[in-house]
Amino acid sequence: QVQLVESGGGLAQAGGSLRLSCLVSRLPFTNYAMGWFRQLSGKEREFVGYTDWNGGRTQYADSVKGRFTISRDTAKNTVYLQMNSLKPEDTAVYYCNALTTIRDYWGQGTQVTVSS
Q1: Per residue in 3-32, pLDDT tens?
Q2: CA–CA distance, 102 with 28 (Å, rounded to integer)
Q3: What angle do CA 95, 100, 105 make, to 5 degrees?
Q4: Does pLDDT of 54 surpass 90?
Q5: Strand pairing partners for 33?
Q6: What value, to the nearest 5°, has the Cα angle with vertex 35 and ends 27 and 20?
Q7: Burial code of 46-71, b = ≥16 C-beta within 10 A, e = fewer?
Q8: SS in 3 state form for 21-60?
């Protein structure tokens, strides 16, 4: 069974940093894009950023551009989301997503809370 497990969430102060990790297990594909999304309670899940299968291409939502960075370690089957200059509006549950040619897979999410 495919598993995506996020870690690294927690509490940070505004202006601080956090790094999220997403470990992918048992995914029977070699090339797939990885993305990060976030969701506030009662709101729709929104796109944060994504990286292609080898980390050579990334794309970010305007709200996080210049502050967040996605990287990928294919040898470790792990994708990271480095979040700097955090703002209270970054508070959300963060989900990683693996997009294959057949379907996509989601992790269980990790809570990020940014205090002002």
Answers
A1: 999 999 999 999 999 999 999 998 866 788
A2: 11
A3: 30
A4: no
A5: 99
A6: 95
A7: eebbbbebeeeebebeeebeeebbbe
A8: EEEEECCCCCCCEEEEEEECCCCCCEEEEEECCCCCCEEE
